[in-house]
Design a protein that fits this description.
With about 200 residues, this protein is an alpha/beta fold. The longest helix has about 35 residues. The chain is elongated and about 65 Å long.
Amino acid sequence: MVYGYIRVSTLHQNLENQQIEIEKFAFSQGIVIDRWIEEKISGTKNPESRKLGKVLMRECKEGDIVISTEISRFGRSLIMIMNVLQYFLEKNIQVWTIKDNYRLGNDIQSKVLAFAFGISAEIERQLISERTKLGLARAKIAGKHIGRIKGQKSSYYKLSPFDSYVREQVLKGRSLRAISIELGVSWKTVERYVKRFGIRKKK
């Protein structure tokens, strides 16, 4: 099965150009696109909330091919793209991109690459966690109290150094679990924080 994956960031953008590009490429390779997965959604959204995760990643089976115009169609952040590619490669699903000229598949080079993606993603998660700890340490040095004095409501929280980032991601519709992974905290910590300060995504 050959899938064509097309994504644009806004409802006002046109999917047609990407489809034409993929069709031309498929013709040059002597293959036919069996199914198109199209979506108009920001690449900052987690794959689980997009057709990429809900449809494509669930339906693809070993030996299938996923073709996209460029690797950035899979996500906006490096860690998100690495996680998606790692998933495909571990399932022996080929990923071809036209502009980047990637041909990732069931070969030793791609398997090594999938392993590297996994390590890189884990390192990135650790770095985010470390940045969180450093932010808390700096806040302590600056004299900001972390934690609550008995009988008082806290004015500083674990995620206070990342308040603007958390607000931005929630407003964009990112899941609390995704935000928690990036910041190296539990999703309950993020949930408590957004509830306490009434942070909600746009309707």
